[in-house]
Amino acid sequence: MAKKKVLYYNIDDSLDFERDLLIEWGIQDIDLIEVKDYAGEKTFTAHAREAEGVVVEYQQMTRTIIEQLPKLKIISLQAIGVDNVDVKAATDHGVYVTNCPGFCSEEVALHAIGLMIDLTRKITLLDRSVRQGKWDPLYGYKTNRLTGKTVGLYFFGSIPQAMMPMLRALKVRVLVYAPTKMKAFLEGYGAEKAETFEELLTQSDILSLHCPLTDSTTHLIAERELKMMKKSAFLINTARGKVVDEKALVKALNNSEIKAAAVDVIEDETTEESPLFALDNTIITPHAAFVSEDSFYNARKIALEQLVQRLSKNQRPSHLVNQDVMK
């Protein structure tokens, strides 16, 4: 029996875990091929030309690449975001695109809450000041209690839902802007529904972003939106860097239009010179909110499940992104 080739491209770990799962599941018609090659697009297409499935994290899957892979049936992302894949091109060529929603919900939820507490208590800011020789508990901006403050959540997927038990314990009011979620659904979690984005911006003491990067969310937070926020507000971004206009954020922080910001993502994550790095009223982590051993293995299992459903069982993958591909 000819096996279907699946290319794992520039995935850090060995595939022993995946191969053990295939044995456990009784799947014998998939051959996992591991390639680490950072030379670029041409070498990727050369490696993937015979593949019916590819598993990627950060590799760009452009229309040009997809058109050069005639056997390709599925792109399985070991991630939530799909902004590195031309989903329309995949759909046009009958290629399924899948992701791993919820694989790191607990990790990102806890990270966002941690950043929220850090900003409120100035933990990182005071740590920096002590290391610089300043022993001053009043250093930096003025602080207030979290109790009774309004935490605004932009969208309400698995990560904000995982945040809710922690937010309830902190005794804050939670206001959510999520047009697709009904008021009763949000109330079931103990949250209130914001009818407009403007309502969320103007009422939030802490605004936390939890949306995918799309055309409509690129620079969702820019100069206009920052000016609408409270001068005492905190901004938290654990979504995607380009959801926030970085230049506008730097300007707002320098001009005290908002109090502080904490970001796990920036617009250009290859840079060593972001203007955000020089600001005292920022916390920056290196796109680490999703990281844990548990989340890594969860993502790997989910990504493999999508491949098996499509290639071995000829089923609709459980986490299909481009639903139109089946029409």
TrEMBL record:
Biological source species: Sporolactobacillus shoreae
Family: Belongs to the D-isomer specific 2-hydroxyacid dehydrogenase family.
GO MF term set: glyoxylate reductase (NADPH) activity; hydroxypyruvate reductase [NAD(P)H] activity; NAD binding; transcription corepressor activity
D-isomer specific 2-hydroxyacid dehydrogenase NAD-binding domain mapped to chain residues: 113-289
Transmembrane spans: none
Key words of the record: Oxidoreductase
Name of the protein this chain belongs to: C-terminal binding protein
Domain of life, per lineage: Bacteria
